[in-house]
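Researcher: Next entry in the queue.
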Amino acid sequence: MKKLAGLLAFAFALAGAILLTQYYSRPDAPPAPPATPPPSLPGMPPTAPAHVNVPVGFKPRLITLDPATGKGAVTLVLERDPAHPAPTSVWVWAYFFSTDAPGRYCAGEPVEVPQPFNEAGHAELTVELPVAGCPAPRGSSSTYYARVNVSAESAFAARLAESRISYNVTQASPVVVGGASGKQK
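Model: Structure for this entry, 185 residues:
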């Protein structure tokens, strides 16, 4: 009886091993073909669907902040690879910080810029940003810095995660600060 039970256990284990081997050695189904973008009109640059992350390079030129009114502005140059289709939109986000308030920053929601590129694949634009929670400057010599991020994917992708927020001034751009009186410091 013990030999029969052992033989049955061996047979079940062998059948299970064969079934598992066949299951995992099956070739996967071929991937679905990618969706084709709609054709562009003659004379217009090709555009990518909004959900496609097209690489976009950017360089901030001028960044301003008015903490009293909760407004910031970023003038930047955008560039893209002409080999890729132009994204239909980009989202711009910036956060501002001061060495006077270590570990604190202020920011708003990312701002969408529709159709930012010309035919040559670059653009220069100024984006006004809402800003909330800025630490009050300690004096007239207070300096603010900003880090800017641009995404062609989504507003969520433009906003940096808390773990990527840096207060290193060597990686940030200096900010021109304007007061409530409209004067710039």
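Model: The chain has one domain: 47-177.
Researcher: Noted, moving on.
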